[in-house]
């Protein structure tokens, strides 16, 4: 897309691609100052752009948004250069690229990389980033944090009897119960299958008190997951297929501070604890023994 303006922003000429993208007619757009098409949040960027034009005669490429005629905004990448015309006027020529598809693809890629597609919870990648952030914060505050690993039992039996869609409904309900059972500062993630993890941050600087705090969270999670699950599996051909399902959970907890260990050591601590819980029949909570 091409536009031709005075340095003041008065539009002199635009091509058909620009008209199509912004929804204006040629008559309408030539009565509008180009800066009116830029959202106010970009005011500082516009000032910097003008300064760059005055200094070196060009700017960009830079990303911003433009306002369509209907008031919606769309992302663009803009470059510009000042050229002197035969009448002596300095004219700004702008090259504008609609990057809506690129932005949409970037969002999809980000979500695929960092979030679980079924539950929309953070996945292992994003969880690991947040774990590193918590460790860094603990170094400054001397506080403890806890990893609470959760393996939900009896999911396979539901899948086997009613199909994968029923299992997906169960996992969605599990994720909802987990989110509703933790504090706003905590992170709930799904590692895959029926395996979830809670990162509980901002626990006490005292190890014993931090362990008690983590235990309260873990017991709350276990109680929430143990309540009956009720689903309507009906469809158009078979309405009102109501089922009630019961689950238990195995929970392993590792309380840690910001020592020099690798973050994956803390994950292994919680994982080893949950393994021991499952060996004894599940439906209980076990803390990792740091003396092991």
Series of secondary-structure elements, N-terminal to C-terminal: EEHHHEEEHHEHHEEHEEEHE
Shape: elongated
**Count of DSSP strands:** 12
The share of residues in helices is: 40-55%
How would you characterize this protein structure?
By secondary structure, this protein is of the alpha+beta class. It has two domains: 2-104, PAS domain (Beta-Lactamase, 2-Layer Sandwich), CATH 3.30.450.20; 115-287, Alpha-Beta Plaits (2-Layer Sandwich). The protein contains nine helices and twelve strands. It has helices spanning 16-22, 26-29, 43-56, 100-114, 124-141, 155-162, 164-180, 207-226, 263-279, and strands spanning 2-5, 11-14, 58-67, 73-84, 90-98, 144-152, 187-192, 195-203, 229-232, 242-245, 249-256, 284-287. α6 (155-162) packs antiparallel against α7. The longest helix is centred in the last third of the chain and has 20 residues, at 207-226. The relative contact order is 0.10.
